[in-house]
């Protein structure tokens, strides 16, 4: 008021006293002109406003409510809400209009607390608000996230009836609830509105977008457009919200539709829409359309330049980013730290080391501002280049370290596999009391996972809980992944059940189960996720397909293939590649090739998977042809490409082709790895060139590992070269003393040569070193797994409740043979296909058509493909059922039929086959409930005995430990132990269906 009094004296002194004492009529007319001028003409500066205000006070018009409201509005426009308040307080009698003016003055200047305080005074002064008051006060509540206050105003609006037929009031509440993250009440408010306008629709759309419910936001725009007669068409603000949702979802198609709608309705020229279009295309990774949108912008500000440079940098188009950067400098737009950081990030992603260093020099020469963001980006770039020495120098020279600086260094060490260094740096952070953020903890937990250091991971877990970060979903996901990588699935599952879940959480646990060989649990968890209405993304589907490949779960894989088609995900290159891999490993080579041929684009990984598929199925010729086709189309092969094709040649015995391809790696500047050398050793060794294989190992530029020695040892076993085998086995065991395969190969080689004492000695050495024979497995269909070691039998006995049989099943560990088979039921008799796949790697010299990695049998003898194949590697025989009329025994070395075992004119279906230990007697269970015994040494292969065993069809059969008894399992769940000396005598029985 002192300032007003001073201005009043100055203006009063400028008026002549003669004028003030003149006639009343002349004075009144002049004052009216001045007041009219005050209301109708804009005031350009604050000084003029002060003069006008002083004149109003001098002439006694300061108590006029309309003049006071005008003054309040003018002071508000000059960002002087405090002067507005003084004007307001000078009025004795205030009406609703004046209260609205002072509330608007504070609200428009961002003084939301005072706006609410004034509204409270209005309420206590018994002055009722009107429909113009409520939207401003509710918007102030929204900006302050004052949910409770907003709810109380909602009650006031309901009592006064302002929500009936007033779209502005209703829209303000939709906006308030959405700003307070309560979209349920926001939609309820919107749904209850009797009248809606474009503002109410836009408030709901933007609310959904700001609360990360992007799909609901797009759906709201669709409904708004469809109800054009009921509501209004989207305006530029609605389109802006929709484009933001499309960008966050990566929905390029929906974004293009909105773009077309904006152009059609004339909103495409809006600066806000143009900026949103650029941002949307950038987030969708479409640099071409983003550039078109950028060029159409008339006014290109710093944000626009940052967006377009950033999208090219993220897409590793660093050349285009630099061109735009120079263009920005020509346009006299000064770059800030964000733009420079984008370009540095682009250099890091492109691994263009020299140009990145040159750009660093340019930053220094041009004296660009090196703020903390730029320094961190420089460290990140050098870490990505692998230049940790330069990154460390920058890190050490920092005057002030922030958490992001530490994170970049930890990430750089992790990228180069220096996980121990990551943990040391994290410890140093704690000593210096640098607060670890979410990114720090995620990186450290990743390092613990890579080191399989669960004790360190638990320590980090305790640190997370102690610092109250356990509720963060990213950290929870990392913890689940860490325990999964450390093979502690129990804790991983418990943690999964306790934390808040998103799609990454589900993916992490499913991946953990798959990574640890629990593919059945992974498939079950996927079903649980779908039941919980969690929509799988492409990462989920890739993990699921990997589990299907592991289990040979073809039907599950086919269902995922259908889902991929329905969701339009066939353009996802990595997902389709995973689909091809699944079909390959499930034996559907032709179908996988069809999908491969239909791919619109292929990368080197796709080619590698298909080449490897042909190798797995023993078609080395097709693998080599596909490799050549890849080269002809200009796709540069990598190390895995050569590994796949050389491996295919090794399995098929194509020595000349394999050697040629191996030495062609030099043409592509690819240095052979240990796996490449192992394949070459395997190729030469299988062909009998053992001396050449050993010379290759001795001449390797890198030290051979267990895999290389193991390949040579396998070849020695194939060709019964005991002398070299002993020499190689010693080196192999020194390289990998925990690998049971070396001991088993030597034992089998000694046994095949009749060196029983050496075989027993090797078994003793294996036992002395504490090396256990790992369980082989075979997956049948999608629900059953057969194990060939004691683990399966112990589980079986525990299930049937006879733990006293432990000694018998323990002895099976020494006597059980590895089962590897592919069984195809004859479709003419049974409309069912069951496939059995194994993890066992065979060591016999297989003929073409049998892959030693997968155990799949695809060979055709003559013109007929056998409907059932069973192979027992330890006995060098293959039992093959032709039709269901006979059994043929094949010699695995000559692939000639040794004998035929007739089953009669109307034979039953055989459900299980089992040799005794010396391989002289074959037992078969059948659907007629009979046990059939055959002698494979008799020329006619006649049935030597048989007796009825079950009232129902039999499921499986197994010889006892001393071969004086035989066990049988019926489809009704009954288990019997039969005496072989007194056929038909039951020694023991149990009904497993009751357990």
Automatic annotation (TrEMBL):
Keywords from the UniProt entry: Repeat, WD repeat
WD repeats: 947-982
GO-annotated molecular function: mRNA binding
SUPFAM superfamilies: TPR-like, WD40 repeat-like
Domain of life: Eukaryota
GO biological process, one term: RNA modification
Pfam families: E_motif (PF20431), PPR (PF01535), PPR_2 (PF13041), WD40 (PF00400)
Transmembrane segments: none
PROSITE patterns for the chain: PPR, WD_REPEATS_2
InterPro entries: E_motif (IPR046848), PPR_At4g14850-like_plant (IPR046960), PPR_rpt (IPR002885), TPR-like_helical_dom_sf (IPR011990), WD40/YVTN_repeat-like_dom_sf (IPR015943), WD40_repeat_dom_sf (IPR036322), WD40_rpt (IPR001680)
Chain positions of PPR repeats: 95-129, 301-335, 402-436, 502-536, 603-637, 638-672, 739-773
Record PANTHER family: (WILD MALAYSIAN BANANA) HYPOTHETICAL PROTEIN (PTHR47926:SF397), PENTATRICOPEPTIDE REPEAT-CONTAINING PROTEIN (PTHR47926)
Family label: Belongs to the PPR family. PCMP-E subfamily.
Protein name, UniProt field: WD40 repeat
Organism whose genome encodes this protein: Macleaya cordata
């Amino acid at each position: 008021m002192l300032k007003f009094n001073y201005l009043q004296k100055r203006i009063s002194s400028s008026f002549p006293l003669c004028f003030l004492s003149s006639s009343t009529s002349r004075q009144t007319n002049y004052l009216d002109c001045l007041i009219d001028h005050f209301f109708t003409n804009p005031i350009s500066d604050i000084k003029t406003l002060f003069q006008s205000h002083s004149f109003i006070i001098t002439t006694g018009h300061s108590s006029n409510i309309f003049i006071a409201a005008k003054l309040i509005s003018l002071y508000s426009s000059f960002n002087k809400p405090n002067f507005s308040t003084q004007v307001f307080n000078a009025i004795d009698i205030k009406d609703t209009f004046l209260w609205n003016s002072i509330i608007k003055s504070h609200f428009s200047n961002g003084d939301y607390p005072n706006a609410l305080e004034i509204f409270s005074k209005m309420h206590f002064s018994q002055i009722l608000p009107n429909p113009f008051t409520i939207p401003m006060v509710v918007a102030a509540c929204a900006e302050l996230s004052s949910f409770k206050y907003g709810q109380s105003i909602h009650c006031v609006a309901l009592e006064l009836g302002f929500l009936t037929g007033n779209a502005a009031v209703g829209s303000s509440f939709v906006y308030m609830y959405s700003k307070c993250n309560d979209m349920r009440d926001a939609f309820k408010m919107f749904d209850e509105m009797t009248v809606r306008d474009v503002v109410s629709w836009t408030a709901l759309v933007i609310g959904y977008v700001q609360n990360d419910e992007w799909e609901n936001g797009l759906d709201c725009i669709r409904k708004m457009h469809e109800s054009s007669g009921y509501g209004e068409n989207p305006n530029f603000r609605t389109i802006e919200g929709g484009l933001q949702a499309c960008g966050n979802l990566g929905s390029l198609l929906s974004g293009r539709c909105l773009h077309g709608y904006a152009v059609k309705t004339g909103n495409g020229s809006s600066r806000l829409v143009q900026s949103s279009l650029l941002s949307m295309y950038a987030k969708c990774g479409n640099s071409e359309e983003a550039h078109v949108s950028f060029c159409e912008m008339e006014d290109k500000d710093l944000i626009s330049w940052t967006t377009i440079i950033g999208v090219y940098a993220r897409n590793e188009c660093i050349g285009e980013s630099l061109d735009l950067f120079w263009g920005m400098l020509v346009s006299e737009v000064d770059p800030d730290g964000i733009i420079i950081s984008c370009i540095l990030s682009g250099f890091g992603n492109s691994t263009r080391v020299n140009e990145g260093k040159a750009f660093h020099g340019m930053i220094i020469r041009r004296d660009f501002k090196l703020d903390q963001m730029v320094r961190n980006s420089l460290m990140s770039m050098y870490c990505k280049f692998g230049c940790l020495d330069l990154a460390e120098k920058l890190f050490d020279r920092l005057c002030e370290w922030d958490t992001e600086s530490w994170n970049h260094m930890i990430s750089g060490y992790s990228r180069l596999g220096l996980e121990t260094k990551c943990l040391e740096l994290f410890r140093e952070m704690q000593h210096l009391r640098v607060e670890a953020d979410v990114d720090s903890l995620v990186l450290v937990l990743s390092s613990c996972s890579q080191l399989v250091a669960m004790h360190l991971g638990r320590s980090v877990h305790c640190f997370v809980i102690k610092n109250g970060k356990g509720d963060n979903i990213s950290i929870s996901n990392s913890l689940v992944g860490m325990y999964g990588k450390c093979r502690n699935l129990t804790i991983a599952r418990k943690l999964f059940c306790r934390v808040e879940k998103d799609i990454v959480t589900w993916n992490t646990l499913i991946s953990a189960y798959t990574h640890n060989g629990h593919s059945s649990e992974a498939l079950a968890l996927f079903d649980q996720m779908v039941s919980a209405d969690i929509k799988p993304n492409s990462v989920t589907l890739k993990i699921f397909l990997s589990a299907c490949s592991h289990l040979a779960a073809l039907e599950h894989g086919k269902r995922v293939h259908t889902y991929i088609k329905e969701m339009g995900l066939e353009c996802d290159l990595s997902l389709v590649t995973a689909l091809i891999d699944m079909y390959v490993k499930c034996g559907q080579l032709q179908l996988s090739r069809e999908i491969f041929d239909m791919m619109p684009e292929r990368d080197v990984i796709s080619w590698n998977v298909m080449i490897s598929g042909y190798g797995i199925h023993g078609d080395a010729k097709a693998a080599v042809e596909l490799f050549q086709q890849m080269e002809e189309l200009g796709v540069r092969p990598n190390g895995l490409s050569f590994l796949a094709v050389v491996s295919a040649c090794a399995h098929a015995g194509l020595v000349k082709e394999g050697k040629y391809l191996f030495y062609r790696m030099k043409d592509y500047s690819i240095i052979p790895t240990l796996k490449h050398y192992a394949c070459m050793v395997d190729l030469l060794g299988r062909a009998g060139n053992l001396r050449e294989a050993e010379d290759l190992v001795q001449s390797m530029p890198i030290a051979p590992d267990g895999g290389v020695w193991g390949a040579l040892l396998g070849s020695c076993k194939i060709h019964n070269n005991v002398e070299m085998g002993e020499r190689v086995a010693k080196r192999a065991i020194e390289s990998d003393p925990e690998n049971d395969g070396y001991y088993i190969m030597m034992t089998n080689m000694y046994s095949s040569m009749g060196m029983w004492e050496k075989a027993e000695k090797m078994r003793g050495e294996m036992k002395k070193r504490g090396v256990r024979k790992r369980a082989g497995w075979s997956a049948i269909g999608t629900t059953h797994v057969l194990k060939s070691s004691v683990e399966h039998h112990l589980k079986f006995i525990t299930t049937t409740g006879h733990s006293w049989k432990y000694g018998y099943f323990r002895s099976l560990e020494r006597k059980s043979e590895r089962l590897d088979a592919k069984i195809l039921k004859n479709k003419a008799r049974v409309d069912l296909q069951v496939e059995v796949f194994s993890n066992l790697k065979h060591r016999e010299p297989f003929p073409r058509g049998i892959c030693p990695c997968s155990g799949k049998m695809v060979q055709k003898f003559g013109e007929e493909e056998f409907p059932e194949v069973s192979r027992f590697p330890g006995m060098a025989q293959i039992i093959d059922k032709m039709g269901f009329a006979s059994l043929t025994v094949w010699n695995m070395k000559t692939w000639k039929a040794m004998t035929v075992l007739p089953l009669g004119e109307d034979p039953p279906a055989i459900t299980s086959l089992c040799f005794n230990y010396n391989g002289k007697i074959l037992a078969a269970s059948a659907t007629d409930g009979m046990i059939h015994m055959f002698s494979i040494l008799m020329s006619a292969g006649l049935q030597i005995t048989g007796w009825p065993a079950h009232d129902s069809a039999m499921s499986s059969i197994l010889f006892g430990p001393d071969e004086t008894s035989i066990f049988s399992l019926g489809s009704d769940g009954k288990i019997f132990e039969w005496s072989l000396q007194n056929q038909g005598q039951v020694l023991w029985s149990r009904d497993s269906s009751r357990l």
